[in-house]
């Protein structure tokens, strides 16, 4: 994508001699220029967790009138400045139906929470502090201050006030506020459309009966879940056999459907049947990188064609999902207007010794616990094979081992990503 980079050539390295692209550099390239992918208007009832595309002004003031905050009696504070004070009850104000008259000297109106405070009254005597007498009289047992238990009109917000700004996620609080501001429809960032294509002649959909040499495709489901969790929508492109023409046709489908992102699963390596890179090139996808200094997940591709970003993940399930977690999730979040919230490493201590690392950054599946001081203790799982989904699911975290990290003793500090 970028032409100004000083990083290693993105051309496929047949010799393996050129250094692999560091993970952070790869992530920076994937996220380069990724921001909100567009705008649309949606009914507020469908806007939960969407991101506001523009500032939102209140369409009314809240509360719209001076309102009682308590059940009790609307009074003139001067009449009950000293207790006890006797007042004549002349009517009733309830939420949704005001008292139309005026409260004069020595008078009170029975009032309930949310009811408009009647004209003339300027405070509410709570009913716990009132004693009812026969003949429609009450005695105020406590002095009343002006404005007591009254929510002034506009106390919460005024008409025209901007209360929610562009970029704000409509979480459960913001959504209710937008409703109180009386917005039936809100402008939000469009959900990025992510096409997902599994490749492999051995793959069949989950739930079907595989032939003797076939396996069940599984990665697309985890990848789809990452997409929706980060604010995207998915366009499932199914399974393509390892045939360049078939894969290319599905890539065209992604381009023609104006997807924002295409994720390919499998076929990313350099074997005779790894055809994704060639198929992408045949559809004019400009490959930015093909291999990165990461384990699992070295054969990972990124490229663009027009407005479409293409992420080519390896087929091994653990590699696919870690690639999705590290690269796709932040990309989708960025396009959805949530900001590219790449997972942030936390600090912990190793529970066991680990050996020195080679040229690639490792993401080891690990369990987490806490020591007596509350420090996170990280235990890498015994099996780290990139095909082992059972171990992936058992893991709480990915232990990060930097390229060329020296051997480390039990108790040594370490960094990890929580899963
Ligand atoms: P590949 O990256 O195509 O060389 O695939 C590597 C390994 O992952 C092979 O054992 C494939 O059978 C397996 N694999 C590829 N794609 C998927 C998938 N979508 N779901 C599960 N396993 C896969
Ligand atoms: Mg394959």
From TrEMBL:
Enzyme Commission number(s) of this protein:
2.10.1.1
Cofactor(s) essential for the protein: Mg(2+)
**From the Swiss-Prot or TrEMBL record, what is one GO molecular function term?**
metal ion binding
Which CDD domains does the record match to this protein? MoeA
Q: Which UniProt keywords apply?
A: Magnesium, Metal-binding, Molybdenum, Molybdenum cofactor biosynthesis, Transferase
Its UniProt entry gives the catalysed reaction(s) as: adenylyl-molybdopterin + molybdate = Mo-molybdopterin + AMP + H(+)
UniProt signal peptide? none
Residues forming the MoaB/Mog domain are: 195-334
Q: Which SUPFAM superfamilies match?
A: MoeA C-terminal domain-like, MoeA N-terminal region -like, Molybdenum cofactor biosynthesis proteins
The biological processes this protein is annotated with in GO are: Mo-molybdopterin cofactor biosynthetic process
- NCBIfam families per the record? Glp_gephyrin
Q: What is this protein called?
A: Molybdopterin molybdenumtransferase
């Amino acid at each position: 994508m970028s032409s100004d980079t000083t990083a290693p050539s993105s051309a496929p390295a047949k010799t393996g001699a050129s250094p692999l692209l560091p993970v952070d550099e790869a992530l920076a390239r994937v996220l380069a220029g990724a921001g909100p992918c567009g705008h649309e208007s949606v009914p507020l009832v469908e806007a939960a967790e969407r991101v506001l595309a523009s500032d939102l002004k209140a369409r009314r003031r809240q509360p719209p009138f001076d309102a009682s905050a308590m059940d009790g009696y609307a009074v003139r504070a001067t009449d009950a400045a000293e207790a006890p004070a006797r007042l004549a009850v002349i009517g009733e104000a309830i939420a949704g139906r005001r008292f139309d008259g005026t409260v004069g000297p020595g008078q009170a109106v029975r009032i309930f929470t949310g009811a408009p405070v009647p004209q003339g009254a300027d405070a509410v005597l709570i009913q716990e502090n009132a004693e009812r007498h026969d003949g429609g009289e009450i005695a105020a047992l406590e002095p009343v201050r002006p404005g007591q238990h009254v929510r002034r009109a506009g106390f919460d917000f005024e008409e025209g006030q901007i209360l929610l700004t562009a970029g704000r996620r409509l979480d459960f609080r913001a959504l209710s506020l937008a409703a109180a501001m009386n917005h039936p429809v809100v402008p939000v960032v469009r959900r990025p459309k992510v096409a997902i294509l599994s490749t492999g002649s051995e793959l069949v959909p989950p739930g079907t009966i595989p032939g003797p040499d076939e396996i069940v495709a599984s990665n697309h489901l985890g990848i789809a879940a990452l997409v929706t969790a980060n604010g995207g929508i998915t366009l499932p492109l199914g399974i393509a056999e390892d045939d360049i023409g078939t894969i290319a046709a599905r890539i065209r489908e992604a381009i023609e459907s104006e997807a924002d992102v295409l994720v390919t699963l499998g076929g990313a390596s350099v074997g005779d049947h790894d055809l994704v890179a060639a198929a992408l090139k045949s559809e004019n996808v400009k490959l930015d990188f093909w291999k990165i200094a990461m384990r699992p997940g070295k054969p990972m591709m990124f490229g663009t064609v027009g407005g479409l970003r293409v992420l080519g993940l390896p087929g091994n399930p653990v590699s696919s999902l870690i690639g999705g977690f590290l690269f796709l999730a932040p990309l989708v979040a960025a396009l959805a207007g949530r900001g590219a919230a790449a997972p942030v490493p936390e600090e912990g201590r190793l529970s066991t010794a680990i050996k020195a690392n080679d040229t690639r950054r490792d993401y080891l599946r690990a369990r987490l616990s806490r020591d007596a001081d509350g420090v996170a203790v990280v235990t890498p799982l015994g099996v780290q094979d990139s095909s082992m989904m059972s171990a992936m699911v058992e893991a709480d975290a990915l232990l990060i081992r930097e390229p060329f990290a020296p051997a480390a003793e039990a108790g040594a500090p370490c960094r990890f990503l929580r899963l």
